[in-house]
Amino acid sequence: MIDWFEFVTRIKPGLELSIGLVIAVAVTVHVLLTKKDTASATAWIGLAWLAPFFGGATYFVLGINRVRRRAIRLRAPSAARTRRHRKGGDAADADHRLAPLQLGISRITGRPIETGNRIDILNNGDGAYPAMLEAIARAEHSIGLSSYIFRADKIGHRFIAALAEAQKRGVTVRVIVDGIGSGWLLSPAYRALRQAGLPAGRFMHSALPWRMSFLNLRSHKKILVVDGRIGFTGGVNVADQNLLANNPPEPIQDTHFRIEGPIVAQLTYAFIRDWAFVAQEELEGEAWYPELRAHGHSIARVVTAGPDEDLEKIEQTILQAIACSRTSIQVMTPYFLPDQRVITALGLAAQRGVAVDIVIPSKNVHRTMDWATQANVGPLLEAGVRIWRCPPPFRHSKLMVIEGEWSLIGSSNWDMRSFRLNFELSIESYDKALAASLGQIVAENHSLPLTLEELNARPFPIRMRDAAARLLLPYL
Asked: Mean per-residue pLDDT for 27-56?
């Protein structure tokens, strides 16, 4: 007679070993075929072999990029329409000394450069919100709005009321809020949008355990496109704290932009493909893609990035700009935690005589970011990069200017989350007047310098704390 208990007891260790071996091999094969970063690949493979069941489950939830195929399948049909509707030139002045930069970014993005644009600077919510609400009030055909943070506060309800009024007069309205930035478990703004009868979607939102990996992938974009003719983008979310005139308890300084001209078609397409991803609805026609004419002299192009077909494209754009700089690089960012590639590129630029100035907040709203930054910038200071801390209120602007001629504006911070995990949108512009104005904003915030002596004087426990915080760099 077979002793089944003894049989199972004897076979169980061998069965567990076999299953663990299969899991470890499967994870290894998938990592080798899909992961570009060697440090990340090595870590995942090591975890899978050391703890096959835990490592395999963790990799299945957090390590597999499930966005890429969905993004391509849902977004690809709009690409041909974007090419069909775009207006403007295919190249700026070929003799311009930044022509290599223009060519490099063209190959990174696959998008044409557009001439004849106008880009106006809007300071804080005080400047941005009235212009945005006015555009919504005058809309005749379509409105697309996407915001990482959309709060159901006073200004949030003003936007909801304006959008609902536009829809009542026959305007097609679509709204995207991020599934984390605008609230995960509860999203009052999303609920208010739906209660107002507005078609709204939550980007990458899911409460299902097997989709928890998406919590780390966020749409950080700020886009408003009206009638396919007027666009807004930059760093301003929809929240009362951006209205400095009202003296909010936690004020945020920021920079936003109003855009007209052929580049608006690229901005519209960026919104439309995100809406297709969120709602599986393709938006098309003259309501979204009208004929566009020149409105100014800015030469511009949209650069998008995300953990799909646009992986690391904004970081690559920044690296191209650093490599093409010869005299000056000006950067303003609320979060400065780039990877070693960007650190090295900035350091090399400073060593070849480029004046590199980076402005960050003197006190971050996330203290861990301050700690990690202090552990990350030593090599830059050693190379001659100047790092400045601007005083409160917290400065949320994301600006880059090189040579006083080229600028990069939009939603992307200078950290690994924005470069690799978030869905971001920036605009590159070859416009001396715009670059001069943005450069002035950066220069006016040169306040307290961060010095190498200050970093080296940190007590040992503080240095250990900062170094530990730096290990969280990909997730901060």
From this structure: 80
C-alpha 399/C-alpha 410 separation (Å) is 8
Domain end residue (candidates: 269, 302, 335): 302
Does 284 lie in the same domain as 353? no
Nearest residue to 136 via CA among 124, 145, 127: 145
> How many separate domains does the chain show?
3
* 343 and 403 both lie in a single domain: yes
The tens digit of pLDDT for each residue in 255-314 reads 999 999 999 999 999 999 999 989 999 999 999 999 999 999 999 999 999 887 778 899
Q: Are residues 161 and 259 in the same domain?
A: yes
Are 292 and 320 found together in one domain? no
Please check whether residues 77 and 154 belong to one and the same domain.
yes
Note whether 130 and 39 are same-domain residues. no
Q: Record the pTM.
A: 0.85
CATH code of 445's domain: 3.30.870.10
First to last CA, the chain: 61
Residues spanned by the domain of 401:
313-475
In a domain? residue 157: yes
